[in-house]
Design brief:
This protein is of the alpha+beta class. It folds into two domains: 56 residues, 2-Layer Sandwich (Alpha-Beta Plaits), CATH 3.30.70; 171 residues, Aminopeptidase. Helices cover 30% and strands 26% of the residues. The strands form three sheets. A seven-stranded mixed beta sheet has the order 6-7-8-9-10-5-11, sandwiched between helices. It starts with a strand and ends in a 6-residue tail after the last strand.
């Protein structure tokens, strides 16, 4: 099956059912904030290596997680209750994404978080759609994560840690925030053992898309999540 070539129209994404068996649905286009918001709202995300054209994916099955179902081990509870890490939101987005880019991942050469991706997600952050959670220890950034929030869905992108459990504590703080603000789903995208241990699981893509279409219709919490200035806004997604 030939892979669909995107046009300049930011709405120009094919039906996710046209994806290849691996999950590739389209090639080309750009990483403009508007196109990224349309993509994530449609269950599609970019993922490609440096020097390659942009590839767009919609995996089947899809890994997801409900904020109410995070699994917390006794050792992680102990770390959380120790307050050894202090967490914040949206205070150091670019550094978080750059440290995520440096994470060594088994069976993967290099990283998909290249300079174009960093610029694109930083632009989304400036617009109030992409967010970071930081975990500090001794005033040093020890772990964190970032993702995109649309409606009542948080689309997780990547996480890192330089000290044990730092990213998990950041994730725990994200979970508490999402529950307070009525988020119903985390789109974790790819199936990994690490995410399964935290409580994520896979569902058929058709079920994910059905849930996603409902959740992205809610107003989005746009702005800085750390300083109290974020506001609920209607986001026009459909053409």
């Amino acid at each position: 099956m030939p892979i669909y070539m995107l046009s300049d129209d930011i709405y120009d994404f094919p039906n996710v059912n046209q994806a290849t068996q691996d999950g590739i649905i389209a090639i080309g286009g750009d990483l403009s904030p508007e196109r990224l918001i349309i993509a994530y709202s449609s269950g599609i995300f970019p993922w490609y290596n440096e020097g390659e054209p942009i590839l767009w994916w919609s995996l089947d099955p899809r890994m997801v997680m409900k904020p109410t179902e995070m699994k917390i081990t006794k050792s992680l509870w102990k770390t959380i209750e120790s307050n050894k890490f202090s967490c914040s939101f949206d205070t150091n987005f670019e550094k978080v994404i750059r440290l995520c880019a440096e994470v060594e991942r088994p069976e993967q050469e290099g990283t998909w978080i290249n300079e174009d991706m960093i610029a694109a997600y930083c632009a989304l952050h400036e617009l109030g759609f992409a967010h970071s959670v930081e975990a500090y220890q001794d005033n040093e950034l020890a772990g964190g994560l970032y993702g995109i929030a649309i409606g009542h869905v948080f689309c997780g992108e990547s996480m890192f840690h330089t000290r044990t459990d730092a990213s998990k504590v950041a994730f725990y703080n994200l979970i508490q925030f999402l529950k307070r603000h009525n988020f119903e789903l985390i789109d974790a995208q790819q199936d990994t053992n690490h995410l399964r241990r935290l409580g994520a699981y896979t569902i058929p893509r058709k079920d994910f898309i059905k849930i996603l279409k409902r959740l992205v219709k809610y107003p989005s919490l746009v702005g800085n999540w750390g300083d109290g200035t974020a506001k609920l806004k209607e986001v026009i997604i459909e053409k």
